[in-house]
């Protein structure tokens, strides 16, 4: 199944993160899953499993995955999290708009959606036992929109308040992009992303130099 946005999020409207936390559906196991909003919509803030030590995986934007209906990317992320000793995983995205193909993402950042997405990110970090491990897993897709590296930079600033540890998995590309989870081995180890800020500095108008 492919998700093509029916409209941009400016016109569709978005729930605040606080409102999205309010239960509205009961078609999955809430003791196992974190899913915000808890119903299928044009955006998704968080999807993951509950545990005391999650690996926080950062992709570009959500596709069709939902509790008990993980796509291949999230299945791979979950396997790698378990292999590396984490008891759970959380999928978070640089931008919250659902689109199976990033080319279908809106060309202009919706400040409201971004603001609520950053609230969701900080909510995850507050619940995570320190030190939180954040897996940069967006691949070259970060080049799809100029606003995406800007969003990541804000996430770095938020993460600094919680002393998080940024990591990658698998070989990085010649442009320095962290590897996307989809084609990684299940036994891929995690490596410190020590040059994250210089990597973000390499972007101009949305493209890596």
Task: Give the structure's gist in a few sentences.
27% of the residues lie in helices and 17% in strands. The protein is of the alpha/beta class and 209 residues long. It has a seven-stranded mixed β-sheet, sandwiched between helices. It has a two-stranded antiparallel sheet with strand order 8-9.
Question: What does it look like?
Answer:
- This protein is of the alpha/beta class.
- Helices cover 27% and strands 17% of the residues.
- It has 6 helices and 9 strands.
- The protein has a 7-stranded mixed β-sheet with strand order 1-2-4-3-5-6-7, sandwiched between helices. The protein has a two-stranded antiparallel ribbon with strand order 8-9.
- It is globular, with a radius of gyration of 16 Å.
- The C terminus is likely disordered.
Query: How far do the termini sit from each other?
Result: 34 Å
The main sheet orders its strands as 1-2-4-3-5-6-7
Bin the helical content: 25-40%
Number of strands: 9
- Envelope shape: globular
How much of the sequence lies in strands comes to 15-25%
Count every helix, treating DSSP H or I runs of 4 or more residues as helices.
6
SSE pattern, N- to C-terminal: HHEEEHEHEHEEHEE
Provide keyphrases for this structure.
209 residues, globular, seven-stranded mixed β-sheet, two-stranded antiparallel ribbon, alpha/beta
